[in-house]
Description:
The protein is 46% helix and 21% strand. The protein is α+β, with helices and mostly antiparallel strands and 238 residues long. The strands form 3 sheets. Strands 2-1-5-4-3 form a 5-stranded antiparallel β-sheet, sandwiched between helices. A two-stranded antiparallel ribbon has the order 6-7. A two-stranded antiparallel ribbon has the order 8-9. 30% of the residues are buried.
Amino acid sequence: MKGRNRTISLLYEAALNPSLWPSALAAFADLTQCRDVILSVIDKKRGQPRLFLSGSRVFPPEALRAYLAHYYKVDPLLQSAAAARPAGTLLLCHEYVSPDVVARNETYQDYVIPLGGRYMGGWALENNEATLAAVTMQARDAPFERKKVARWGSMALHARQAVLLSLQVAERLSQGAMLRQAIDNAGFICVMVDRDSKLMDCSAAAAALLGNGGSLKVSFEGRLAAASETGTKRLRQL
């Protein structure tokens, strides 16, 4: 129970801090006693991975980069019926990719098998018109049994919620960056302060104005101030 709770905690922490995904996936691998766990998020509109991470047990960072650079393009699992399965579906690679395909496929022969992650068992976490997300457990020598994978279904639910939260956070950050760029391009003077008038952030035009030390400036204490003491008092009252 302790290992399960720790893994769940790490999944949700990773949703808000992407640098923690490898630790969360490594904990998932330890909990399920498999060789590695991979989280993949495919941008279906662009036809390429948006996120591809592992617990680094089998697939270290350089291997993940190789997949993103090339092997996803010839991955037969992404081209199989598995890619059309709805969210929540339990996926076993040997049910979608035959031994004949494995024997002649570049992704399996030059990438997956040499790394020791021949067999996959996992879940489709999300599958809509824009995104395909999955979490997969990796094994070397034998296919996963459906019952063995199904017993971790509750963990897959937590993984799904964490991934969806992570995507929402990323989208909001992206929208925030676009808004900031639009404000800067328009030359708007925009200053953000806390309730004590301490400067938190400002647009490019505002930074230039404050830097000139004219009608508005930043005091030694980091608080927004006006040119005069009276003006500063009124400003802070506002």
